[in-house]
Amino acid sequence: MAGMGSAGKSTIIRHLKFLCTKNSNYKYCNEDWSEKKDEEIECDDEIWKNKIRENIINAFDIFIKQVYKNEDKFESEELEVFAKSLEHLYANKSEIPSVEMSDLFREHLINLLNDPAFKKALAQKNKIQIDEAERKPFDGLSYFLNEIKLKV
């Protein structure tokens, strides 16, 4: 399925999955159009949580790199250490699903979000140049990168 960002492609897929798992008139099939059994259908909530978590960590990593590119510094050594740990986490993406989103982890994300150097990098989101073509701030960035959503 092709389309512009935020066009609703993911929403359509979620609705189709819902119809296939909750309504016996519809069937959920794999890529070869073979019907999938209930135990073969992955838990949608967990998939979306992990994807959102990965996107958030990706976004933080992009803006942390921009802070360094701007030659700015974080307000505290604690934020600097946390920023380095997020960079490491993004570099080792397979660890992301196992990250516990504890209150302390969320608090550090919020502190980083409120850091002046990070805010400056965030303000440049449409101008950021990334060496990897497939990496860019995702469309729903502003929805997830705020204190209220990070606390949830």
Tell me the count of domains. Answer: 2
- Contiguous helical run count: 7
Output the CATH topology of the largest domain. Answer: GI Alpha 1, domain 2-like
Assigned CATH class of the largest domain = Mainly Alpha
β-strand percent reads under 5%
Model description:
It is built from 7 helices and no strands. It is mostly helical and 152 residues long. It has 2 domains: 1-41, no CATH class; 43-151, GI Alpha 1, domain 2-like (Orthogonal Bundle), CATH 1.10.400. It is elongated, with a radius of gyration of 18 Å.
Features:
mainly alpha, elongated, 152 residues, GI Alpha 1, domain 2-like
Concise overview:
By secondary structure, the chain is mainly alpha-helical. 55% of the residues lie in helices and 0% in strands.
List the helices and strands and how they pair.
Blueprint: H1 9-22, H2 44-69, H3 77-91, H4 103-113, H5 116-123, H6 141-144, H7 147-151
Helix pairs in contact: 2-3, 2-5
